[in-house]
Amino acid sequence: MSRGVGIDVGGSGIKGAVIDLATGAVVGKRRRVATPSPSTPRAVANSVARLTARLDWHGPLGCTVPCVVQNGVVATAANVDHSWIGTDGAALISAATGLSTTLLNDGDAAGIAEMRLGAGRGRKGVVLTLTFGTGIGSALFIDGRLVPNTELGHLIMWGGSAEHRAAASAKTGENLTWSKWAKRVDKYLAYVENLFWPDLLIVGGGVSRAHQKWLPLLHARAEIIPAHFRNNAGIIGAALAASQAVTP
Q1: Residue 26: predicted pLDDT
Q2: CA end-to-end span of the chain, whole Å?
Q3: Which of 133, 151, 156 has its CA nearest to residue 207?
Q4: Residues 180 and 239 in one domain
C-alpha cells in the first residue's frame, strides 16, 4: 500500500492522518490538535511538527493553510494570523518537521481529493468544489486541471466576504435553520455560477454530512452533489499533492 500524510490547518483545529494514496482511505486514527492562538506561522509549524511526530511519519508531507499559496510562500491570511503573509510557509514547516513539505491552499487540496479519488473522478468540463466550514473554500477545475487559489469564499457579498454570511460557521453562530441558511447559500451560488458557469458543483466540509437537509433546498443551474470525502478531503488532497512532489 502506498501511503502519504496530509495535514489540514484550519481556523479552529489542525487535523492530520496517514492516507492510502490509492483510495483516499484514512489509515489508523485521524489526529487533531487545536489551532494555536495566536496562529502565527511558527506556532502553527510547531503544532504540525507535533502531529507528524504522533503519526510517526518520515516521508514527504502535504500541508494546507487557509491562504493563497504561491511556490510555498503565503500571500494572504484568512482565519489565521496575518503574520503569515509573505512567509515561506513550506520552508518553515519543513524546518520544524524535518520533512520535505508541499504547502497548498486548503480549498485546492479538498478539490484535488474529490477530483482524483472522490465525487469528481473522471468528470470533465468546469467543476467547482466548495467546502463549507469556518469559511468557504473553493477549487476550480477545467477538464481536470486545477486553477489554483480561487478563494471564492472572499467574494464581496452582503457588504463583506461572502463566507461571513454563508459559511457553515454562520449557520451555527447565528442559530439559523437549514432553510434560512440555504437561502444564503443559494444567493452565493447564484453569484458564483454567473462568474464561472460550472457544469458540476461538489459541496463538502463537515456540514456535507447532513447534505440531505439542505442540498434539496438549493436552486443551482449546475448539477450539485455532496463531496465523497467530506471533512477529510483537505487531508487527503494534501497527501496526494505531496506524493507527487508538485505544489498545485
Answers
A1: 97
A2: 24
A3: 133
A4: no
Per-residue pLDDT tens for 182-208? 999 999 999 999 999 999 999 998 899
Q: How far is CA 199 from CA 113, 124, 132, 140, in A?
A: 18, 9, 19, 11
- Cell numbers that stand for 198 in this block: 460550472
Sheet with 145-147, edge to edge strand ranges: 145-147, 136-142, 126-132, 200-204, 223-226
Which positions ≥6 away from 204 have C-beta within 8 Å? Answer: 110, 114, 129, 130, 131, 132, 226, 227, 229, 230, 231, 233
Buried residues in 201-211 as b, exposed as e (16+ CB within 10 A): bbbbbebbeeb
Looking at the structure, do residues 76 and 26 belong to the same domain, yes or no?
yes
Cell of 70: 504561491
- Quick one: residue 11, left, alpha or beta (phi over 0 = left, psi -120 to 50 = alpha)? alpha
Query: What separation in angstroms does the CA of 33 have from each of 14, 105, 146, 200, 225?
Result: 5, 19, 29, 34, 30
Helix (H, G, I), strand (E, B) or coil at 82: helix
Strand partners, 14: 9, 33
Q: Say if residue 95 is in the same domain as residue 191.
A: no
What's the number of domains the chain is made of?
Answer: 2
Is the overall model pTM greater than 0.85, yes or no? yes
Give the range of the structural domain holding residue 62, as residue numbers without chain letter.
Answer: 3-108+232-243
Question: Where residue 38 sits, what CATH number does that domain have?
Answer: 3.30.420.40
Q: Please give the Cα distance from 18 to 52 (Å, whole number).
A: 9
Residues 202 and 144 grouped into a single domain: yes
| Separation CA 227–CA 235 (nearest Å) | 14
